What does this fold into?
Amino acid sequence: MKEIFALVDCNNFYASCERVFSPKLEGRPVVVLSNNDGCVVARSNEAKALGIGMGVPAFEVEDVMRKNGVEVFSSNYALYADMSSRVMETLLTLAPDIEIYSIDEAFLNLAGFNCSLTDYGRKIRRIVKQWTGMPVTVGIGRTKTLAKIANRVAKKSARVNGVLDLTDYSCLDTVLTGTPVEKVWTVGIKTALKLKSAGIKTALALRDADISWVRQKFGVVGIRTVYELRGISCYLLEQNPPVKKSITVSRMFGRPVESIEELKEAIASYASRAGEKLREHSLAAGVMTVYVTTSRFIKNRYFNSHTVEFAVATSDTIELIRNACRCIDRLYRKGCAFKKCGIILNGLVSENQIQKGLFDNIYRLKSQRLMQAVDAINIRLNSPLQWAAEGLGQSWKVRFKRRSNRYTTCWDELPEVA
It folds into this structure.
């Protein structure tokens, strides 16, 4: 049985999350800003209509936002992650096979559904909206690439009412003709430029391109894209996501950091979070890289990094913090106003496949039990335990001055009903 893919995509995800718990925002322009309220990272359709671009610095559009009554929010990652989980859990009840593609997208396999796929897409929209409050669009096709294209058209066309089924070949050529080649899944900027220079400007032209020429110019990825546009599936549903190859934890500081003590507090905090991520995925790291940087906009920018290889792969927060702080001793430069630091963990292995060290002097079993106890406590607490090396004040932390309440993850910020 051939697979039929449905791509379910949340509309303006961050902005829609804010609207779920504040109905007064419906129909009003909404903008969400990045860390330290620096740049625009999400916009409602009303904000897009005002000409507010993605990624523009907030200060450049401040006048536009103020004059048009734009509602502005800091990123609320706890809320967005939880709302994403609720949407994905809802989709799991609507299809037996699902691939969570990103925080706001999922592929569903609708093969074998003996009903109108358009009607079922509308059912998906209705139930997700009813159960989570999130608006979604649904694109349906015989391949992931066609489902992506269908979803894009469904977002823009009021006529299809949020659902487009491209398994109906009567409209397929028309849709592909109206899709610029750079909007095709897996086609990057450089590839699009090469295709356009060869006269291939639409998805339809790419579908009908000579396969030998595509193989010569773009290799296996290009061939797969052409086959996908022809309705031949090359990308199957990935129900078990691949094992992570690296883990990164970094943040911009809320203000420039000049003292080594504060820099160590920040890197200790990031090392603690990195350890939690490792244990969440039952992994251990063999290599850790710590980096620091000043602002890229100053004349004498300073960027440096240092890498540590562990004798035995680890997920022990104490070991991560100790080595991260030693890296800061090597990287710190007096007189620099640091804007950011971070940790990158590589050489990841399953915690069940850790190669023991002959001269290892760390009591690993005791360490593992301690980490399990700390994680268990933190899961239960709204204010988790912190390691002393992270400091108390943390005045360097990223700023979220306009962040809404964490309505679904913090008891003290639950919505009140009068």
